[in-house]
Design goal:
Helix 1 packs parallel to helix 3. The radius of gyration is 15 Å and the shape is elongated. The protein has one domain. It contains four helices and no strands. With 120 residues, it is an all-alpha fold.
Amino acid sequence: MSDQTQVSVEPNSQGNANLIYILYLVAIVVGITGIVGVVMAYLAKDEARDNPVLLSHYNNQINIFWKYLLYILVGLVLSVVFIGFLVILAALVWFIIRNVKGMQALSRGQAIENPGSWGI
């Protein structure tokens, strides 16, 4: 990993970002929590302007939501030719990994290096 600056994160703010990651993971079973999470991330993003660590996490969470939705939609379209199920499975694995990595970085107080990344 590259040099990542650690900035103190207020406990309440860190808890909010962590809650959004948890809501995303719960969304695998209860889909509506993902929508709640992305709304929370958009609302909290404005308040985190002064904290680059939290801002990177909120940007990461917003990107995770929209990219996962896109991957699932592509998988659903491709399920007509049966390859879509593999795309959906890959999207699910990608979604879980991105959320867990985000939670780990948040617990260490580190920013997400490239929140707009399409990869893991």
